[in-house]
Amino acid sequence: MTTPEQLIIIGNGMVGHHLVEQLVDNGGLERYQVTVFGEERHRAYDRVHLSEYFSGRDAESLALCDADYYATNGVELRTGEAVIEIDRTTHEVITDQGRYPYDRIVLATGSYPFVPPIPGNDREGCLVYRTLDDLDAIRAAAENATTGVVVGGGLLGLEAANALRGLNLDTAVIEFASRLMPMQVDNEGGELLREKIEELGVQVLTERATQRIEDGEASQHRMVFQDDKILETDLIVFSAGIRPRDQLARGCGLEIGERGGVVVDDQCQTSDPAILAIGEVALWNQSIFGLVAPGYQMAKAAFSTLTSGDTHFSGADMSTKLKLLGVDVGSIGDAHGNQNPGARMFRYLDPIKQEYRKLVVSSDGKKLLGAMLVGNNSVYDTLLQYYSNGIELPAEPASLILPQGSGAAPALGPDALPETAMICSCHNVTKGDICGSIDSGAMDLAGVKGATKASTGCGGCTALLKSVVDHELESRGVEVDKSICEHFSYTRQELYDIVRVEGIKTFSELIEKHGNADTHHLGCDICKPAVASILASCFNEPITDAAHIPLQDTNDTFMANMQKNGTYSVVPRIAGGEITPDKLIVLGEVAKKYSLYSKVTGGQRIDLFGARLEDLPDIWGELIAAGFETGHAYGKSLRTVKSCVGSTWCRYGVQDSVGMAIWLENRYKGLRSPHKIKFGVSGCTRECAEAQSKDIGIIATENGWNLYVCGNGGMRPRHAELFATDLDDEQLYRIIDRFLMFYVRTADRLQRTSVWRENLEGGLDYLKEVILEDSLGINDELERQMQTVVDTYQCEWADAISDPEKLKRFRSFVNDDRPDPSIIMTSERGQLRPA
């Protein structure tokens, strides 16, 4: 049996990990015994979504593989062990813990943040933004800071600014160039980008060169600029570009580029054929590629070289689609138009909607050479396909960047894309690859993803991938089933329309008239709750009525969230987070009487845990008598409206955010929807209520209110998008009425507003046309429907405790009134919790 060669991979970032995946998936481990060195303590993680670390994600959720992936596949992973030298004479890699022999090496050491040589750049509180440990250091420093500055206004600089802003710091960005993101956008785009970012409360200072950093008077640091102007701040984050980590290569005598980087050929081989280099450390054809997609392509080329294949690296497209501080930025090809003499340019600027689009086309107007987008990336996918595949442009190229309804050209359909069209650049998946996976048996989106890994990288191609998959399945005669379940051959939206038009008020009537004849008429766990939600949205009848109870899950049935030990939580509504001392005392007395664990939630509510089923009516009886009502924490409905103290107390507040939050919560508290809805109302641009992470976000201005929509926190955070500005109170609630009711009408089951927005054909532009311009002529109807919901509101718990029949459900055993003996509690920090 042949002894395997010793392959050492130095670097466990995204690109190095991708090479390991190639070796695991394609038989490379039959030839090589692989050892991977990563100097960080964490195994490979997703740096593309690094900023989400400040939005609730942890190192484990960012990890690119399970904890046992390497060991299970026979790969040795040595984290926290840095390679300090490569001895090419003895063919050994040297670390601070030992020497390891090698036959082949792959350098995947990536890059490091460039810190300008400014006197004082090493002071405490001067940090960089690159790794999870860097982010931990920034978070720790922010605990004792109120202001933060990012040095560098490029892609990573704006990511860092977003992180500081998320840590509730007054944030500024300093850029040496005359505009933000100078590599991606031109002067017009940069000015618009600056305008949008400043509206979010981030100060932007361009054409500033920091001369020194010294002790501040009011803050920890004072930054002195070239014109002797100063800026004081508590925290400084350097994000002024990257440099290849080529020290190991320099130390062992490999060829290095004039400005750094390990020189590689098309096979990713260095000047020593036994050593390869991939990712941001590699210099190919005088270029270093700072995106993950080219790094993945290099990893594939390196795998081919290691296994005697013929895949080469021939450069990569650096087109990017980004969302920075919630602002869309897109750059394709020669976006500045300075690489193609004779190129012609088209520009579109809408200063009201704050959108800028630019096309760079060939002199004959037939080929797209580049594009630039700021404020709206909805046409990015279409433009990228024109560029990547050399598709001939329409007779009027400008139509590609015009808004909907203004002579805009239609988006390229999947059938117009050639087989070579790149769908997923992260994993180099073409339309032909997708078609091949379908021909090989992949019969749905999940199957195609599993076979090709498309859309499992940055996720930017998700919508295009689904479009191509659906089209290809349908073209092969495979019906793309969009039914909600086996009992109904309709989508949720279609069922909603049926219920509204026909006035159907029960599940039994709906399934009798429109259910599938070849299935039983009991329904399932998918269609029953969905129909219950539709009925509640349309007619606002109590979910506890006998006709609806069989449709509900446990939480809605008992109007409380079941916990892991069989007890329930009680969450009374505290509108806007405002509560009187008397009501606080009542909550304390109830919690003490029924031995409930008390917890203040992130949505400014008080959650009482550990209530036994049979105690729920008595608990709610006491709360309702004290003036409380249900908080709908158990339902797909409005959960909370978070607020800051606004102009009532805060010296920065410009509007009464508490009053507005209370008014809005009381207006929409009875609305049932496809998924939960959260609001936030901030009294100024300091954004203490975190409104831009909510489904509906409202931020006060001197002239009224700015409205943001379709954001969410959680596992996949999404910034809300600016929808309308400087609204008065009546304009605000009328627009929210329309928006919410249109969402209720058209969203899929269990679909958050953020996902609904991402899947909505036409995107935010279309939504603005419907809601703000009444393009469908339905706004009056939407407002009337919402007013009906408002007028017919009733507290579901008040209704339940006044009905003896409904109260019969609240016992653990059908034939016994005793409490559930299996519930056992223990004490911790002075409160009871599940044992």
From TrEMBL:
Organism: Vreelandella nigrificans
Limits of the NADH-rubredoxin oxidoreductase C-terminal domain: 319-384
Keyword list, A-Z: 2Fe-2S, 4Fe-4S, FAD, Flavoprotein, Heme, Iron, Iron-sulfur, Metal-binding, Nitrate assimilation, Oxidoreductase
Domain BFD-like [2Fe-2S]-binding: 422-469
Annotated siroheme binding sites: C688
One MF term in the entry's GO annotations: metal ion binding
Family affiliation: Belongs to the nitrite and sulfite reductase 4Fe-4S domain family.
Cofactor: siroheme; [2Fe-2S] cluster; FAD; [4Fe-4S] cluster
Cofactor note: Binds 1 siroheme per subunit.
Record GO biological process: energy derivation by oxidation of organic compounds; nitrate assimilation
Gene3D superfamilies to which the protein is assigned, alphabetical: 3.30.390.30, BFD-like [2Fe-2S]-binding domain, FAD/NAD(P)-binding domain, Sulfite Reductase Hemoprotein, domain 1
This protein's name: Nitrite reductase (NAD(P)H)
Domain Nitrite/sulphite reductase 4Fe-4S: 635-760
FAD/NAD(P)-binding domain ranges (all copies): 6-293
Entry superkingdom: Bacteria
Keyword Iron: yes
Pfam short name (any one): NIR_SIR
Domain Nitrite/Sulfite reductase ferredoxin-like residue range list: 563-625
Residue sites binding [4Fe-4S] cluster per the record: C644, C650, C684, C688
Subunit structure: Homodimer which associates with NirD.
Pathway(s) where this gene product acts: Nitrogen metabolism; nitrate reduction (assimilation)
